[in-house]
Amino acid sequence: MIDLTELGGEGGKRLTRAFVLHPELKSKPGSREPEDALAEAMALAHALPGLEVVGGQVVRLPRAHPGQLFGKGKLEELRQALEADEIDLVLIDGPVSPVQQRNLEKAWNVKLLDRTGLILEIFADRAATREGVLQVELAALSYQRTRLVRAWTHLERQRGGLGFVGGPGETQIEADRRAIDEQMTRLRRQLDKVAKTRELHRAARRKVPYPVVALVGYTNAGKSTLFNRLTGANVMAKDMLFATLDPTMRAVRLPTGKDIILSDTVGFISELPTLLVAAFRATLEEVLEADLILHVRDIAHPATAAQAADVAHVLAALGVDDEIPRIDLWNKADQLDEATRLQVDRQAQRAEGVFVGSALTGAGLDALFAAITAQLDDVRHHDTVTVPHSDGRLRAWLYGQGVVESEAQGETETVLSVHWSDRQQARFRALRDRT
């Protein structure tokens, strides 16, 4: 992690002066308007304490220079601008290779973070639970492992010998990489223990007849505001990217009288680094276990369609089952002008499972709560199913759902009497069909 104190951050005499650059490559245009992408990158920068975001700029390039990202002319032009503004830290909204990072820092005499590095810094600042801290550390080590060239440019042998692991002849970069690998192994073991504890909690919840509703959405879409409105909790809810990092769950009774367990998750973002998706998979498994996914979407945002597509992409990357029902809340409708609101209302009426409202004011939420209740109010019925002895996973799933009333052993299969809902029956069949 970057030391902001060293740059003059919170522990220094002044805030770290930061500047944001969004490279727009003609050979590889982004999925959204460059100005919108820059605005999001600057919002990310504002979310990190200790920074004074001086400004930002879209830099249009024909292609990325392999050694320093920018061409010589643009490199010098930016150097003069950064020097004039006394910039300490440059944030590049996009991927930067270790070689490019080293060369740019040398050319501009600044510290530099790419998009992944910036998101990691924010996550490190926000993680509050032990699991969150472990996940951030694991993701950060994975990121740093690929960038050892930045810290160690010398590859000369430290001692003579054959170069066996840990022995004479090992280069400094090899020693660092081995140390990182060992630390990552320790972190994974600790996370495995946390994951087992979380699974025990999930197993206990399955025995409670409360369905789980998982809130998902782009960061700053208003999930935590909706969560607080429903639960009376005091989850951090600010107009800031990644205000919520650690998952929060509460039992709540909807105004319709329906009891549910509501789960607030970390917000998604475009180009979410793969290593972060992998590190936070254990946390996001709450979504995989949900009975209903409630997608909270900032309908007032200029890039709302692109944000919705990014959420769908992350859910697919997590392996979220299409069988899990989904409802959309088009949030922040209170920020729309009258003409736009009418247009959005008409669009929502043509879609299935879409509701327009405001988590902040509460407007439009009654219809949403009624739809959630209708979706989850499955009538339970008695049934009999057979599971081959060779498929212990299906039998374990049924017991995990708390629907088994009795069982009888046959020669090749187990016959189970169950009391379940139509939704559980459909999920059982989907699991069985995959085997």
Automatic annotation (TrEMBL):
Mg(2+) binds at S224, T244. Transmembrane segments: none annotated. Pfam families: GTP-bdg_M, GTP-bdg_N, HflX_C, MMR_HSR1. GO terms for cellular component: cytoplasm. It is found in: Cytoplasm. The keyword Cell membrane does not apply. CDD domains: HflX. GTP binds at residues 217-224, 242-246, 264-267, 331-334, 358-360. Its cofactor is Mg(2+). The keyword GTP-binding applies. Its main location: cytoplasm. GTPase that associates with the 50S ribosomal subunit and may have a role during protein synthesis or ribosome biogenesis. Monomer. Associates with the 50S ribosomal subunit. Belongs to the TRAFAC class OBG-HflX-like GTPase superfamily. HflX GTPase family. PANTHER family: GTP-BINDING PROTEIN 6-RELATED, GTP-BINDING PROTEIN HFLX. This is GTPase HflX.
